[in-house]
Amino acid sequence: MDTFGTANIYDNLISDLVRANFKLKPREIIETLNLRRPIYRKTAAYGHFGRTDSDFTWEATDKAAKLASDAGLKHEPVGARK
User: Fold this and answer.
1) Which residues contact 11 (CB under 8 A, 6 or more apart)?
2) Residues 3, 11: contact at Cβ < 8 Å?
3) 57 Cβ contact partners less than 8 Å away, ≥ 6 residues apart
4) CA 17 from chain center: how many Å?
5) How far apart (Å, rounded) are the C-alpha atoms in residues 14 and 49?
6) Whole-angstrom Cα distance, residue 74 to residue 64?
7) DSSP state, 8?
8) CA distances to 17, 46, 61, 82 from 50, in Å
9) For residues 30-55, b (16+ Cβ closer than 10 Å) or e, as one string?
10) Does the pLDDT value for residue 54 go beyond 60?
11) For residue 34, what are the CA distances in angstroms to 31, 55, 59, 74?
């Protein structure tokens, strides 16, 4: 992994945090994000990034505070920066 100097923490720490906090095997990703639901018509119509609909589980930020804490950073909720 290389963030090209844009990260606030070491690149290898980012990799370690991802491995420790996310299940990355295909079956685990499918189960974690509940991807076996018929929701894809919505994504075809208006895309899938930035959606607040509860069906779009990949937009969840429920791990952000723990990741920030584990990295030794202060967690700022989305939209808190100015």
Assistant:
1) 1, 2, 3
2) yes
3) 32, 33, 34, 35
4) 12
5) 22
6) 10
7) S
8) 23, 10, 12, 19
9) eeeeeeeeeeeeeeeeeeeeeeeeee
10) yes
11) 5, 9, 12, 29
Quick: pLDDT tens for 25-47. Answer: 999 999 988 888 877 777 777 76
Answer yes or no: is pLDDT of 18 > 70. Answer: yes
Q: How many residues does the chain have?
A: 82
DSSP letter string, 9-72:
S-HHHHHHHHHHH---SHHHHHHHTT--SS-HHHHHHH-STT--STT-GGG--TTHHHHHHHHT
